[in-house]
Amino acid sequence: MSAARDAILGRIRAALGDAPAEAPVPRSFRRAGTADRAALIAGFAEKASAYRVRVELCGAAEVAATAARLLGERGHVRLAVPAGLPAGFAPEGFDLVPDEGLDRATLSAVDGVITACACAIAQTGTIVLDHGAGQGRRALTLLPDYHLCIVEAGRIVDLVPEAVARMEPAVKAGRPLTFISGPSATSDIELSRVEGVHGPRTLDVIVVRDA
């Protein structure tokens, strides 16, 4: 198999030997935004809300209480949490289950999951997870039917290219990326919207203002 692969690659390299140099591709799109922090928060909240996401804003000292209120209103009690979730993000009075390799059945049985995020995009209302500290592995945010994501204001960027640039270290480290724009949904069958097909049916977001 290795010899065959080497032969194929050798033929490809030989065929490309006299190929012309790659032509530069003009890129005229904006790579960085100019919005201030207040505009970024407002823009992200507006776009995320359009995806049927409930967005709450609060101060750093109010995160746990805000999370507790949202969870109480949803009737959720047992939540999976990833390693590295900041202590101030964990609401009191709930059954928080640390993800230490929870199996699929357990993840599917919890009421939901609480995570932080790597960044969020005001342009699209999208949350980006790079599955670092406080975000957990992909299964943690795909199997439970409810996701409460806590977004620190300093992690909101204006444009998609800014988010892509921020994610470069995670990609180079070999970590996967998950882009979340609202609850999981599809309209593949007769254009009828069905939620919860590939992930949570409900997404709540808490945006934490700067101190």
Please describe the structure with a list of short key phrases separated by commas or semicolons.
4-stranded mixed sheet; 211 residues; 6-stranded parallel sheet; globular; alpha/beta
Structure description:
The protein has six helices and twelve strands. The strands form three sheets. A six-stranded parallel β-sheet has the order 1-12-7-4-2-3, with helices on both faces. It has a four-stranded mixed β-sheet with strand order 8-5-6-9. The termini are far apart. It has 211 residues and is α/β, with parallel strands linked by helices. The protein is globular. The longest helix has 14 residues, at 2-15. A hairpin with a 4-residue loop joins strand 5 and strand 6. It has helices at residues 2-15, 37-49, 63-74, 104-109, 138-142, 160-172; strands at residues 54-58, 78-81, 95-98, 112-115, 119-121, 126-129, 146-152, 156-157, 178-180, 185-186, 194-195, 202-208.
